Amino acid sequence: MGWMASWVAVQGALKAEIFDHLGLTETGDETFPGSRGAPLSFREFPDQWLVIFSEDFDWASAEVLLELSRFGLALACQFEDKVEMTTVLSAARDGDTLWRVFHDSVGSGHRLDVTGEPPAAFAAIRDAALAQQRKADENGEGVDFLCEAPLELARAVCGYRPDEEEAAFTVLRRRGASAPAGRGGQLSILERLLAPFRSKESPAS
After folding, report:
1. Distances from the Cα of 158 to the Cαs of 83, 107, 119, in angstroms?
2. Which segments within the chain are labelled E, that is strand?
3. Coil/strand/helix, residue 84
4. pLDDT tens digits for range 30-80
5. Rounded to two decimals, what is the model's pTM?
6. Tens digits of residue pLDDT in 160-205
7. How far is CA 83 from CA 5, 76, 80, 91, 204, in A?
8. 33, 151 contact by CB (below 8 A)
């Protein structure tokens, strides 16, 4: 599966305030992130995390991250496995960036670029990814394991990793935009049957 997408997560904020700030409205329809079923969707996770997923790589920009960090601790993740195997995860609070972890297969090579101080969980995630990368290189495997490190860190912080999430998200639309044509509401039987297989496909594979 080829991903080129992004998402933001905010902890402890009121959902209505976030949607109002972004000019978004819930539709009640369901979709799976990465399926291209809707440009934007959301789901609430434990520990008061709200995740908004976009099918657009550029959507979860530094500007959006800093804006949403005024509502609570915020994460922004951009990732793609079509061209440069790029993954970047940033955190911010009160309008200030706290830390950033970045990797792409072109500019970074076998390296994770880090600014600030990521959570303590990052050290073990980084070391495991480096060990996997060294083994893959020794075996002549063309696999980029470092690309997955920011995704694993995101899961450690907020409990969300898109390629391993099997539950549906709720579709969002821009305020004032008309509802999309076609069926709404629940997912089709086929979509639900295929959902578990989506999680087997890693963005970095």
Report:
1. 27, 27, 12
2. 4-11, 24-31, 40-45, 49-54, 74-80, 86-93, 96-103, 113-116, 169-174
3. coil
4. 999 998 899 999 999 999 999 999 999 999 999 999 999 999 999 999 999
5. 0.84
6. 999 888 899 999 999 876 554 444 445 444 444 444 444 444 444 3
7. 13, 20, 7, 25, 11
8. no
